User: What shape does this take?
Amino acid sequence: MAKNESRVVYSPREKAIRAILWVFLAFMALVTIFPVVYVVLGSFKENGELLVGGSNIFPKKWVIQNYIDAWSQANFAVYTRNSLFLSFGVMILSLINATMAGYVFSRKKFPGKELLYGIFVAFMFINVGSVSLRPLYELAVKVKMNQSLWAVILFSVGGGQATYIFLARGYVNGVPKELDEAAKIDGCSFFQIYTRIIVPMLKPVMATIAILSFRQGWNEYILPMVFTMTNNNLRPLTVGVNMLKNAGDGTAAWNIMFAGATIAIVPILIVFCCFSRYFMSGLTAGAVKG
Amino acid sequence: MIKAKRAPKKRGMKEGGGIAATLMLAPSVIFLAVCSFYPFMWIFRYICYNYNGFRATYTGVRNFTRMLSDTTFWNSVGTTFEYAALKLVFIIPLALLMAVLLNQKLRGSSFFRGVYFMPTVIATSISGMIFTFIFATGNGILNGLLQNLGLIGKPIGWLTDQKVVMYAVTILSVWAGFGNYMLYFVTGMTSIPEDVYESAKIDGANGVQTFFKITLPMLSPVLKVVLMLAITGAFKDYEAIMVLTNGGPGNRSMVMFLYIYKLIFATQAGTQAQIGYGALLSLVAAVIVGAVTIIYQLVSKKLDDVV
Assistant: This one.
């Protein structure tokens, strides 16, 4: 059925089938996109309209008061800043950490290398769920790091690093060793080869790692929730907006929650629209490990 | 002697940078030790204790005997299996169908692919929240639309009725995840050579025959990996369920990792953290997931031998 588009001529029956299939694809696309459209448009509705419900998707009256309230009264300015700090922190540290480790794993021979790498991979599959957050939380309290988002950033990087190291190592393996040798003859040290030769060559895979780790930081929920139980001013958007829901009189503040949810998803959707290639290549590259 | 003397020198020439390499690898090893290894060991420290976050008392096998008679836990294990089965039954065929359709190279295919993949980039906590709005009984848009179309008489309690809540949870997880598996299938299909399809067409095979006789068999390695990822993934899901239903109504949608989370972090007011007991249940849950994974591996291997 899959054909070389330029050459194939379709019979009328085939054309009809393809038209029906296209309609089905479009319908599924609408269903998929509906919840997002619903919440984005709903964020411009007045709270009264949201509480009554019904089947209107477009607001009867467009208001932006929800955003003003969310931003000033409901602390969303702080949540947004925390989310940005968290996701850029995770992204930058993941990039540095994964490319360095990937470079060493690919280029350096040392005893126990395979074993160490095996342990990295093994912990990708060992999953004990939320229980591992408890010792990390107690550790952060012990070293007095529970008063900033740095603990969340570090634990997030640590939790997600295996996939990124895997991606980076695979890519360094593809860089010709002759480049290293030539740089070494020119007097580059092991670290200089990394900064001058390897990093510039790694740009494509670094883009993938950057995108995936940014999303990881932006979407992190249970980890920051546990760490900011008592500190409202450290909460990222995911936690802050859900706190509103659990606040008891949640039904009353639907408009704020719609605006908050929109603030939480629109940036990542914009990133996705611009860089969808990297999201998808990261996924399939990561699958090779399976 | 000469050889032994020369070897280190040669190695020094060729390798070098041992200190630099150690320093460059150190962060990831420290991360591994602190974020992965330490918590794993920590669990074993407390499985025989009653620990509320402040004080730990040794209780011997009490946690273990409690687990055996803890119906909430065993029900949550059952719910986890039910959830995983429901999710897989819908998400795998849907992902496969969408991948096959995208592979027909219809107009706008890459746009559609992006749209189907989009939910996977949204935080599960936020999609869970969006679906609580959509599923709301009184003012939710889903009931509104269904009533407008005349499909239902009175509103359905998607999140409050024990009989339907699992379907609501399934709808959310299928929506949020099918694009992921679809993309694996799409990638797998690009490696099936075109001329196989062409010769099938010359032999007069129709679309359905082509799918079952060519696409599916040639896709089976990918299908196996995807099933593996989907099974283990489904057993670990709890974030979205936590936001959507928080295990309710009446523990009907309580999956095991959510139950454990609640034990460990005492999220309900007036309850105390039961970390030791939660640690034990975590281990049991990990063993259950591991067992399911191994059984799946054995079954898929058996199928290989038969086919």
Summary: Residues 133 and 223 of chain A are 7 Å apart (CA to CA). Chain A touches chain B through 100 residues (CB under 8 Å).
